[in-house]
Every structure is written in structure tokens, then in C-alpha cells.
Fold this sequence. Notes:
Layout: H1 2-5, H2 12-19, H3 28-40, E1 44-49, H4 57-76, E2 81-85, H5 96-113, E3 117-119, H6 127-139, E4 145-150, H7 156-163, E5 169-173, H8 188-204, E6 208-212, H9 216-229, E7 236-241, H10 246-254, E8 259-265, H11 269-279, H12 283-293
Parallel strand pairs: 1-2, 1-8, 2-3, 3-4, 4-5, 5-6, 6-7, 7-8
Helix pairs in contact: 2-11, 2-12, 4-5, 8-9
Bound molecules: flavin-adenine dinucleotide (FAD).
Amino acid sequence: MLVARSLPLVPKPIVRRVAWRYIAGTTLDDAVGIVHHLARRGATATIDALGEFVENAKQAEQETQQAIATLDAIAANNLPAYLSVKLTSIGLSLDHRLAEQNLRYILDRARLLGLFVRLDMENSPYTTPTLELYRTMRESGYDNIGVVIQAYLYRSEHDVRQLAPYQADIRLCKGIYNEDPSLAIKDREGIRANYRALLRLIVELGMSVRIATHDDVLIADAEQLIAERQLERDRYEFQMLLGVREQKRDELIRCGYPVRIYVPYGEDWYGYSLRRLKENPQVAGHVFRALFRYDGFSRR
Ligand SMILES: Cc1cc2nc3c(=O)[nH]c(=O)nc-3n(C[C@H](O)[C@H](O)[C@H](O)COP(=O)(O)OP(=O)(O)OC[C@H]3O[C@@H](n4cnc5c(N)ncnc54)[C@H](O)[C@@H]3O)c2cc1C
């Protein structure tokens, strides 16, 4: 825990060395290569052009162009993939209308190419605006868009019910941000229990669910539910992050489940990598091993 908290103090080249397994690389070509590799192993992908909390409209526009370039590359290379996007990277923290305009550009291009776009869910100040933008887009006729629900938030049951009239395509995850205890469940078993309840609610309300977790207990529970309800393949899939629990990924593929891998790429790999390292139980070992291998820190 202490090591996780002091990660921002670790020199960037070391974070890079340890974190590289979670990132496709810095370029779109790197992402295309990884998606081809995953496809050969039987997995589909969702590609995230890394970038969040932009500081001005010009940066938001650049991120929007990057998202559009990603869609173009998916189509040009005929990849079994779609796009994941963070609304703060296209301007949500600056101006709601700017984000809406940029999102429309992205969705227009995706629609033209026959592709789907998932709105990642960020920290709690953005939950309501993200869900609002989702609804606005659906009401404007875009049906190539999906959302994310975080099982650690107390509000999520209400949010799922509100999404039912839209028959939303929902990615269900635990949630990664450090939220206030007044907003989010903090204990592991409590989050698991809410995940299981939300999974059932989404299915009962007739929506499609993307089961985004590496947790064996939740994966086993989902497998049981899929069998019990005889869920059709287009109603669900398992989703995992690049570089995490690859054996489990291959096992799910072998069992015949649809599996999609989240593939981040880009120059802004640092913040994403820190979040991944903080949730990795082996983080201390990895960081210290890298520290000793790094020339600047070598004791030899
Ligand atoms: C496809 C996908 C999309 C996501 N999208 C979002 C989003 O939009 N918004 C959001 O807030 N969160 C998102 N997340 C993150 C999610 O909320 C969790 O923080 C993260 O998945 C860890 O929770 P877990 O369910 O895997 O369970 P955990 O209990 O954290 O992990 C279960 C086991 O998996 C292994 N593991 C987990 N993480 C790592 C790691 N980094 N390195 C090595 N081993 C690991 C460990 O063995 C661990 O015991 C996403 C996750 C996935 C898989």
C-alpha cells in the first residue's frame, strides 16, 4: 500500500519499464499490431487513445482527431475492435457543449464506418454529465454508443434502472477511482455483492452486459448466470485489460466465451500506468525489481 502511494515518486523510466505490459505502445500502429495479435488468440478489442483532463479546447480537438484516426485505422485494417473514449479527454472538464460537439464528430465517423464507441466512466464529478451525454446522443439517434457502470458507487442501481428505457449496452466494472466513502462502497466483499446484484439487474432489464473484471469470484458467478439464463452470445462478453491475467483470458476463450481486451496506446501512458500499477498486488515486487535493474539506481 505504501509502495502504491509512493509510486508517483518513482522515476518515469522505471514506471515505463514495469507498466509497458499494460500499454500497446505510443503509436496507433502499435495498437493495430496488438489487436491483430489478440485476434489470432481469439479475442476482440476496444482501443483507447490515452489522454484525459485536457487543459484547453485545442487539446480537446487534438484528442478528438486522435479518436477519429483510431476509428479510421480500425476500419482500414478491418480489425475486430471498437473505440473507448474518456469524455474529459474531449473537453468535458472544460465545457459540456464542447464535449458534446466533439463526441458528435466521433460518433458520426464511427457510424459512417459501422463502428461502436464506448464512453469510459471516470471519477464521480463526471458520472452525471457522462450519463446525460449518453442519453442526449441516444435521443439524437446515435445507437452505436455504450456506457460503463461502476459497481462501487451507491448510485449505480438507480443509474442502471434509468438506462433501461434506452436498452443500453453496459460495461460493468468495479470502478478504479478513489471515491469518498459517502459515494462509494469501500470493502471488497461489498463491491462484489453489488457487482453481482447489478449484473442480474442489467440482465433482468433486458440489456446487454460486458463483464469487465479479472476477479475469479465474479467471473465464476457470471458464468453461472450465463448458463442459468441461457444468455445469447450477443447479450454479454467478458472484458479484460491488456497485460492482466492473460491465462484467465485464454481459458475463457477456450471455453467458448466472447472476450474483448481493452488496448490503450499513446504518449499519455503515464497516468493510466500508475492506476494499473496501484491495483496490481505484485506492484512492490515489480517496482523494486525494476529499480535494481535501472542503471541510475543500480547498486552495482
Ligand atoms: C475492460 C475493462 C474496462 C474498464 N473500464 C473502466 C472504466 O471505464 N471506469 C473505471 O472506473 N474502471 C474501469 N475498469 C477498471 C475496473 O473498475 C477495476 O478497477 C479493475 O478491473 C480491477 O478490478 P477487478 O474487477 O479486476 O478486480 P480486482 O479484485 O482488482 O482484481 C482481481 C484479480 O485480478 C488481478 N489483477 C487486477 N488488476 C491487475 C493489474 N493491474 N495487474 C496485475 N493483476 C491484476 C489480480 O490477481 C487480482 O487479484 C475497467 C476494467 C476492465 C477490465
